[in-house]
Amino acid sequence: MTTPITRTRLTPEQRRSQLLDLGVRLLATRSLDELSIDLLAEEAGISRGLLYHYFGNKHAFHEAVVRRAADDLIEQTAPPSDDEPMVRLVSSLAAYVDYVVANHEGYLSLVKAAAGGNETLREIYEEARSALNGRIFREDAQGEIIPDTPVTRLVVRGWSAMIEELVLSWIADPGGLSREQLLEILAASLPAIVETVPEQ
Amino acid sequence: MTTPITRTRLTPEQRRSQLLDLGVRLLATRSLDELSIDLLAEEAGISRGLLYHYFGNKHAFHEAVVRRAADDLIEQTAPPSDDEPMVRLVSSLAAYVDYVVANHEGYLSLVKAAAGGNETLREIYEEARSALNGRIFREDAQGEIIPDTPVTRLVVRGWSAMIEELVLSWIADPGGLSREQLLEILAASLPAIVETVPEQ
Q1: Which H or E element spans position A26?
Q2: Which helix or strand (DSSP H or E) is residue B12 part of?
Q3: Touching check for B188 and chain A: CB below 8 Å?
Q4: Residue B173 contacts A, CB cutoff 8 Å
Q5: What is the ipTM of this complex?
Q6: Do A195 and B193 touch (CB under 8 A)?
Q7: Where do the domains of chain B lie, and which CATH numbers do they carry?
Q8: Quick check: A116 and B111 CB within 8 A?
Q9: pTM for the whole structure
Q10: pLDDT in tens, B154-177
């Protein structure tokens, strides 16, 4: 028996990946609680049984979708490879703001789930945050914006909590602040806070 | 029949208040999940039945304890009435750091419960945060550190998320930073971030 070659056949891995992309798109405008296997089955036009085959259960499905969303966030916020460290920082922050705006519901529900004690989601969230925070130091290897010390690592953790709160609060109520002005605060606040670190 | 007057008799309100104080002390070194009516009964040396009489159920008990803890936080971080705005800010921040250190477990579990979607606890947490953030502007009525605008209100929300993350991360791993150095960063970062707000 020969396999028909009139259309490309997806491997199970490719099919699963396609379903995850759909899950991430659905999560953009929904909380995790609202993202069900039923909904994905309906949107993908396949049976619930097949989805259970791919993902096992609801928790594993959510975990896989959130992991993919976190990977997307890291990928989309990758700065350009040339330019000055500060230009790269602004570019990365702009992509972060746009990501949170475009995926607001899902992002908010991930923050809540991670903070609220779901261990697996907390781990994925922390991994993504570590990746983003670590990138600050990697992209600024000469320490032009921020030298790499245990204290500045701590400061960047605080700064990134501020960034997240500012972006989420700005989406809820911009208070007259444009996207460009928000970006100016996000970027300029990092060196400004680093300046406050006392000599040790 | 006459009431013995050899010792002061507490009113039910005073008794309830005393039990709440005990609850707050127990919560300091425990998460909310670990704070049970059973534990309180044991520590107070009274029956579970009497505690249910005072608090109704476990959720109402947790709510009452957390509300009391939030009131304590607001009271203990009240700055001195004289001195410069910046001195008052440092004094208030020092009390905040000491409060979080002394009540670490309970504070952390409140942050998690509030972020994780427990609506009542989230409300209490948000009220306390609003009170602390609003105080920044009240204590600096002349706008010496920070003028009062919708954008600076947003900035203070972000800064206070940073403060919380920095203090919790510092407790977990000080990274060689002393309490005084931490305080210097917390206090100096507010005007430093305000400086980054663009003209509108």
Answers
A1: helix A12-28
A2: helix B12-28
A3: yes
A4: yes
A5: 0.89
A6: no
A7: 12-193 (1.10.357.10)
A8: no
A9: 0.90
A10: 999 999 999 999 999 999 999 999
